[in-house]
Structures are given as structure tokens and as C-alpha cells.
């Protein structure tokens, strides 16, 4: 199974993650995609990065960083870093160490949800659309934490339009008025 780290971030916060990976000093190919960025660790691979349709993610030293998006005025998605190789530690020990270092780096930020520990239950109210059902811990980077404090809601980046519409309707019932026609 891939190693995943989910977190709350604004677009500006997201650059902290990109900068963290860029500062590693490893030989990487970086590819931007509409919903995120790929970091391909060339020095750990035996071949060049294949075409996107031909990548075997389970055997490739690839890190996928999804981009948080604004889905409605009050509704943002979370972001995720995914180390796709499976099993990671035995195939790419150096990439496994990078994953552990990223987990350590992420822990410097506010923990807003944990499935294992009773942590900051006041933030659970703002985590919608399946966000509490995936992963063990959820951290909030600085601007996302400020957004939480100001009443911003977050949904899973994998939430489809139906889920987002359902959450938007629930938020309207809670008294929130916002643009329901914000482009997805």
C-alpha cells in the first residue's frame, strides 16, 4: 500500500510542501499536472520517467503531491503527499527515509484530527465530505489553520461533485450563505 500523508493547506501553504521536496537535493524530475505535482526521483530509478499512461506506480520512485482547491466560498479540499511505490521500504530505502522525514516535518504543524487520539475535537466540525474517514492524522499548515479558526470548512480532495453539493446544502442549513456556483 502506498504511503500517504494528508493535510490541510491553502494554495500558499502548499508551496511550503513543494519547497520542502525541492530542497532535498536529490536528482528529480518535477512534472506539474492540473491537480498536483509529481516528483520522480531519477537517481533511484533504473530508467527515465515513462509516459504518464505507462507508469507502474508500485515500482516507480514517484511522489505525488495533490493541490488543495477551493470548491465553494467556504469549502476547500485537503491536500495529500503520496509515495506510490509498494512496498516502499524494501524497493526504495532512501525514498522511505524521505517519507519518514516528511512525516516528521509535517508534525511541526497543528494536529487537527486524529483517529487514534482525542485531539482538538473542535476542528472536527469543519472536516466534511469524508475527510475524517481517511488517514490517521490530519495536520493544518499555517494559513489553513487560520482559515479553520475563521470558520472555513474542508472536504477530501477526492470528494466528487455530489458530495460537495451535499456538504454545501448542509452548510446552508447551518446558516452559511455562499456562492453555490463556484467553479469546481
Question: What does this 3D model show about the protein?
Answer:
The chain has 184 residues and is an alpha/beta fold. A hairpin with a 2-residue loop joins strand 2 and strand 3. It is elongated. The chain starts with a strand and ends in an 11-residue tail after the last helix.
What percent of the residues sit in helical stretches (DSSP H or I)?
25-40%
The counted number of beta strands is: 11
Hey, roughly how much beta strand do the residues contain? 25-35%
> Can you list the strand order of the major beta sheet?
2-3-4-7-1-10-8
The separation of the N and C termini measures 29 Å
Order of helices and strands: EHEEEEEEHHEEEHEH
Radius of gyration: 17 Å
Residue runs with pLDDT of under 50 for 5 or more positions: none
What number is the mean pLDDT?
Answer: 86
Q: Structural class from helices and strands?
A: alpha/beta
Major sheet summary line? 7 strands, mixed
